[in-house]
Amino acid sequence: MIETIKSPTTAQHVSPAEQAATFINGIKYRWQIPHANAEQVRAIAYKHSLALPLAHVLHTRGYNDEETITSLLFSTYEKDVPHPGSMKGLLVAAERIIAARAKKEKILIFGDYDVDGVTSSSLALTALLPLGFDINFYLPNRVKDGYGLSVEAVQKAHKNGFTLIVTVDNGTTAYAAAQEAQRLGVDLIITDHHRPHGGDLPPALCIVNPHQHDCEYPFKHLAGVGVTFKLMCMIYELLGIPSMPEKTYELLLLGTVADVVPLLGENRYWVRHGLHTINHFRSNAMRTLAQNSNLTKEEYTSLDIGFMIAPQINALGRLADPRDAVKFMISSDMADVEAVGKVLKAINEERKRVDGAIFDQIDQRIQRRDIDLSKDNIILDSSHEWPAGVIGLVAGKLMHSYGRPTLLLHLDKQGFAKGSCRSIPEFNMFDALSACSDILIQFGGHSFAAGLKLKQELVPELKLRLNESIAKQVAPADLSPKLRIDGPLPLPELNQKMMTGLEQLEPFGNQNPQPLFVIKDVSLVRPPQILKEKHIKCMVFADGIIKPVIFFNRPDLIPVLQQLEDKPFALAAHVMKNEWNGNVAIELQGIDIALGES
To answer: Which domains does the chain carry?
Structure first.
């Protein structure tokens, strides 16, 4: 069925082209196809020498004037990178750290066990160790210590002679720990990017966080590693050192992509810069991570980093000693890096096995209607058995699969529920949790992803409030798995000019997703090939062109495609460059199909 309706006003980042859209029901997803002005699309293609399908992408995403298009296609340092001195507290932090070197004080970098925290800690060490700072680092253990700076950590640092603690990617909510540092006479610098949620900020020497209400730094979407990087830039500038170590750009790239911050503006500039850096020189850690994931391409993209490299670094946080994660990232000893890399690969494989088992368990509960999505607007489930460190990844998969905000909770023996949330663009999870702060012990995060802790007996109350909040804010049609189509793709347009233009739109990620096209009236050339019982490879024909298509993890499409024979269907797909043994081919990654629609 095809329907043309107005898009809900609750959707974020809605361009004029999205105000009215055609919706098509695919096999799994509901396709949203924004209406487009053909004359404007042609004008964009002509003005910027782009293939028509890519001009369509820009138009439907709201890039219609020369200034915004040029800004997206061409990042520059002068345009996209503000001076770090405009970030509140940053100059004070940089001067205090420099003073610590002069006084030969011991500095402790206190990080986090996720990719952002690991890369932030690694970046600070990479920048400061060559300059003669007396510096060490600590990452809390995910299970034993939990998230963030604690009173116990401050006391231990003081006992070991540290007079300055610098947090990276955490600390905005560490009020008790900051009070303890103040009592013990330990200076505390907090660098973070998580949004404050009401009340007073911790009593630190200074807080460097662009989300402070009176911070004048214009770009608010840096990852924790980005805030750390800006602080290091300021230190280097004050010391008169012209450039940062090349390794810092690799670490900035990894943390920024992995933390799924918007890849626009300054983030876009630095991710491009980081990709250029690693595509010319790869560190021991990067070579090991690529080998673990069988990544053999000569040039990596942000998607390679996000889907193949970053999940492994996340697994580093599950090492018995999370400090080994930082040592792995910065070590110059290839033997040591490879040794950790082998352990890391095994941990990551086990993580994927556990992820899959938890996903299947919850998916079956949904199919049996133990979790009834006809009544609930949210997927919420909990268990004593689920490891706390993996449920965030599973929540993300469920959110994408069912199109619902998802919250999974680990229940501990002390009566607490600790969990991770993943949300859809139409529903700001951080704001929703803020409204429930009276029943939460702690929470933090962003609009799309958050973590929280509460008493187990209050979980039903939280579910009730979130269900009501979603019902008020989100249209029912938006609570289903959706695909947002960027535009049509005639197969004859799939040429080198289009691939060159597609590279100009990179890096792809949050708020600049990989373009998704609809290809109409395609038919199968031969029966589909089944790979590993869950992937599908087939050849499709349209407009005189034959192209290979691969569907990953879509076993549900196997019987559908096998029965199609030569009947036409619509294909929703990404365009991808397949590199193998030195050969490069343009192929399609299928996401969904729609039957009987033209």
So the answer is: 2-74+485-595 (2.40.50.460), 80-282 (3.90.1640.30), 370-478 (3.10.310.30)
